[in-house]
């Protein structure tokens, strides 16, 4: 039988997750200084094949009994335009490595034998009328050559409008990460760094993180809203420390 606290039902997860962020959303002055969320590379490991389950709970695949390993994290936020207005029905995607630093993309062969097959690795959510989204996932861990991060993609009306990444504030690897350091503006770089805070009274050491995403028209977006990707060689160059000013769909 599934544990009654950590392994919650999907509808309960959705309601609880959005409620978790209510205090943050209602905080006076929280949108006083909107900073457009910086564009970040998609990287080479967007799923090449979608998992069997693509909902917003990455810890449990379909009705499996065994959950993924890792620090349970409730990830909430809003998708906003540059004026602070919520974007309703924005399609939010996230993907990240499991607790053993393995992507679900089959081309990631770094530590394949240790893949946590119980981790969904990818999730999607359609924002509500307040622009809110919610995921239950794990706190990201370092990947070889990268500081811990979660990939985000935002789409509207079938068009990708932003690709970015979320980072763990204060992690020691941040200063050595070429992709993160590629965000030259200090305020913009700070906007993708977030605290993963312990939830009081959690029996499972659960964490909560809030990440508001501010979308503006980007240089990589054409008049139809279509985004343009980058190639693998360019991604590899930027991963080694080159500047990252790109956004896009999965590289060819």
Report on this model:
The strands form two sheets. Strands 1, 4, 8, 9 and 10 form a five-stranded mixed β-sheet that branches. The chain contains five helices and ten strands, in the order ααββββββααββββα. It has helices at 10-20, 22-25, 178-181, 186-190, 232-239; strands at residues 72-81, 91-95, 122-126, 132-138, 149-156, 159-168, 193-194, 197-198, 207-210, 213-215. The chain is an alpha/beta fold. It has a single domain, classed as Aromatic compound dioxygenase (Protocatechuate 3,4-Dioxygenase, subunit A, Sandwich). Residues 1-16, 21-31 and 218-252 have low confidence and may be disordered.
Features:
disordered C terminus; 10 strands; Protocatechuate 3,4-Dioxygenase, subunit A; 5-stranded mixed β-sheet; 13% helix; single chain; alpha/beta; 252 residues
């Amino acid at each position: 039988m599934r544990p009654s606290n950590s392994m919650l039902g999907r509808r309960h997860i959705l309601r609880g997750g959005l409620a978790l962020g209510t205090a943050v959303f209602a905080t006076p002055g929280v949108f006083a200084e909107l900073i457009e969320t910086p564009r970040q590379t998609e990287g080479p490991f967007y799923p090449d094949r979608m998992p069997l389950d693509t909902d917003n709970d990455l810890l449990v695949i379909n009705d499996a009994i065994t959950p993924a390993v890792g620090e349970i994290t409730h990830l909430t936020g809003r998708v906003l335009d540059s004026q602070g207005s919520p974007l309703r029905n924005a399609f939010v995607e996230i993907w990240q490595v499991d607790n053993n630093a393995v992507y679900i993309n089959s081309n990631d062969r770094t530590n394949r034998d240790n893949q946590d097959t119980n981790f969904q690795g990818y999730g999607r959510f359609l924002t509500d009328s307040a622009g809110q989204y919610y995921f239950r996932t794990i706190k990201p861990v370092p990947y070889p050559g990268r500081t811990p991060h979660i990939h985000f993609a935002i789409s509207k009306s079938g068009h990708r409008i932003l690709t970015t990444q979320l980072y763990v504030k204060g992690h020691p690897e941040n200063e050595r990460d070429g992709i993160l350091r590629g965000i030259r503006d200090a305020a913009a770089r700070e906007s993708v760094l977030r605290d993963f805070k312990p939830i009081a009274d959690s029996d499972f050491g659960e964490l909560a993180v809030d990440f508001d995403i501010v979308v503006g028209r980007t240089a990589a977006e054409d008049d139809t809203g279509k985004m343009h990707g980058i190639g693998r060689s360019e991604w590899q160059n930027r991963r080694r420390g080159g500047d990252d000013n790109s956004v896009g769909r999965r590289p060819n």
